[in-house]
Amino acid sequence: MIRFWRSCQIVFCFILFGLGVVVISFIIFPYISLTKPKEKQKKYYAEVIHTAWHWFQRDLQRIGLIKINIANSERLNNLSGKIIIANHPTFVDIVILIGLIPNSTCFAKKETLKNPFFRNIVKSIYIINDIDVEKLKTDTDKFLKEGFNIIIFPSGTRTKPDEDFKVHKGPALISLNSNAEIVPIKITTDYVFLQKGQPIYDIGDKTVNYNLDVKPSINPSDYADLGDIKARNHISQLIKNEII
Question: In the chain, at which end, N or C, are there fewer CB atoms within 10 A of the end residue's CB?
Fold first, then answer.
């Protein structure tokens, strides 16, 4: 009975999440675009998403579905112009990270621009990931120089514990291009929770401990003298060592 009740709760939470996306996309963002100076709109967009997703993850905790535990939480204080790198075991990783870290953006697939509910949000504050390298470097550098934090899952998709974890070179490339520090975060749960291929209602019969371990920053300037290729490879290996 407990498992059934928890399943109903998580489904209801995601229904509310979907309704929130509709309100943000069709009411709040258009209002911002009409009433706020253009040069400040991205800040407002980011703050809306951060606030909404902060409430969402707090509600998940309040009703006992999950409990978020953060080791070295002080490393998340006052982040600005940083690249946040994390492994990606669950469906809600990006929601929780943006809910915890203000002034953040992330990558989105080009296909999301075809989704009428997400399109306005994606084009307003997210970075499309399937673009050429030079545009990727230009777009990310602009966000970082404006003080935004960019959250990246270097595996590119959700991974299971038994899968080979591959780290794409993109985060290292972006870091070296903008000389932006990388903040690695390792995510673990004590129950198989919203993994790839797992039904959304399969949330077990007790509170899931969602654990974040914030690791020391990686400074790209420490490895710039290695040369571009060696520096990218070295930083990518450092990332992998910290988050798996």
Answer: N
Taking the C-alpha atoms of residue 110 and residue 119, their distance in angstroms, rounded to an integer, is: 10
Distance CA 42, CA 236 (A): 29
Q: What is the pLDDT of residues 139-178, one digit of tens each?
A: 999 999 999 999 999 887 777 777 777 788 889 999 999 9
What is the pTM for the complete model shown? 0.93
CA distances from 210 to 60, 66, 158, 221, 238 (A): 11, 6, 15, 32, 23
Quote the CA–CA distance of 79 and 147 in Å, as a whole number.
Answer: 9
Task: Break the chain into its structural domains and give their ranges.
Answer: 2-243
Please name which of 118, 105, 127 lies closest in space to residue 43, comparing C-alpha atoms. 105
CB contact burial 28-54 (16+ within 10 A = b; e otherwise): bbeebeeeeeeeebbbbbbebbbebbb
For residue 30, the 8-state DSSP code is: H
Amino acid (1-letter code) at residue 94:
I
Query: Is the separation of the CB atoms in 127 and 107 below 8 Å?
Result: yes
Quick one: tokens of 26? Answer: 């069709």
Q: Are strands 182-189 and 208-214 parallel, antiparallel or unpaired?
A: antiparallel
* Domain 2-243 coded CATH 3.40.1130: yes
Rounded Cα distance between 84 and 106, Å, is 9
